[in-house]
Amino acid sequence: MASPAPAARTIEVDEQVYDVLARTARSRDTDINGVLKYLLEAPAVTAVSSQDDDEE
Predict the structure, then answer these.
(1) Higher pLDDT, 45 or 16
(2) What is the pLDDT of residue 54?
(3) What burial class does residue 36 get, using C-beta atoms within 10 Å of its C-beta: 0-12 exposed, 13-18 middle, 19+ buried?
(4) What is the DSSP string of 1-56?
(5) How far from 50 is each of 45, 46, 47, CA to CA, in Å?
(6) What percent of the chain is modeled with pLDDT above 70?
(7) Average pLDDT over residues 24-48
(8) Dihedral sign, CA of 19, 16, 47, 50?
(9) In 3D, which of 4, 7, 13 has the Cα closest to residue 32?
(10) What is the spatial distance between Cα 9 and Cα 40, in angstroms, rounded to a whole number?
(11) What is the band of 53 on the pLDDT scale with cuts at 50, 70, 90?
């Protein structure tokens, strides 16, 4: 059984988000699609508590 062809999708984002994606694309010498692909493939970052055990 063959896999279905990927479908094109349009996602609307706030203008500030678009600006960040555009700046990231320029700094990585790619386009916004390249940035989105990079972000989707990036490993998950685990959240770490900013409070030390000694602090109360």
Answers:
(1) 16
(2) 58
(3) middle
(4) -PPPPPPP------HHHHHHHHHHHHHTTS-HHHHHHHHHHSPPPPP--SS-TT--
(5) 14, 12, 9
(6) 84
(7) 88
(8) positive
(9) 13
(10) 15
(11) low
Instruction: Decide if 39 contacts 25 (C-beta within 8 A).
Output: no
Extract the tokens encoding 46. 């685990």
For residues 33 and 17, give the distance between their C-alpha atoms in angstroms, rounded to a whole number: 14
Contact call for residues 25 and 31 (beta carbons, < 8 A)? yes
The pair of structure tokens assigned to 9 is 């999708």
Rounded CA separation 8/5 (Å): 10
Residue with tokens 């010498």: 29
**Per residue in 16-33, pLDDT tens?**
999 999 999 999 999 999
